[in-house]
Amino acid sequence: MADLNAPPMAQALRDAGYRLTQPRLAVLQVLDENDAGLNPEAIYDRGRAIYPSLGLVTVYRTLDLLAELGLVRRVHSEHRCHSYASAGTDRHHLICAGCHRVTEFPCNGLDALIEAVRQQTGYTVTEHLLELTGLCPACQASQAA
Questions:
Q1: At residue 44, does pLDDT exceed 70?
Q2: CA dihedral 18, 24, 25, 29 (to 10 degrees)
Q3: Quick one: pLDDT at residue 16?
Q4: The CA-based dihedral angle spanning residues 3, 101, 83, 50, taken in that order and rounded to the nearest 10 degrees
Q5: How far apart are the C-alpha atoms of 66 and 90, rounded to whole Å?
Q6: CATH number at 9-144
Q7: Contact at 8 Å (CB) between 50 and 5?
Q8: What pLDDT digit, counting tens, does each position of 132-142 carry?
Q9: Where are the domains of the chain?
Q10: Is this model's pTM higher than 0.85 or not?
Q11: What integer pLDDT is reported at residue 33 of this predicted model?
């Protein structure tokens, strides 16, 4: 029976044969409630507000599992080593250099580029990640003020 309050990634974990423990659900809820990329420590801090017994090792293990299943994506940042954001099917991210917000965006023209690269190199591209860094509208507005 599905838990109507469970984050969307919960069903994908179940479908992959993993248990939905309270610590994992806390990590999923934090990721679901935040569209900005969060580093593991921030996920841990916010997750403890949901499930006080959450351990940092559990956060790292859950993030590794979610990344392996393609449910989250490691996002690199100039100011932080890496953070994690929910991964949609496109896996293209805009990263704000000001507030570090991560926004996923569609990139419809990339298929032609990947095909051209395949033809030129002979590679079979099995996965890709596109990250663009800039300033979000809110940070642009605050800089202009």
A1: yes
A2: -120
A3: 92
A4: -40
A5: 16
A6: 1.10.10.10
A7: no
A8: 888 989 999 99
A9: 9-144
A10: no
A11: 85
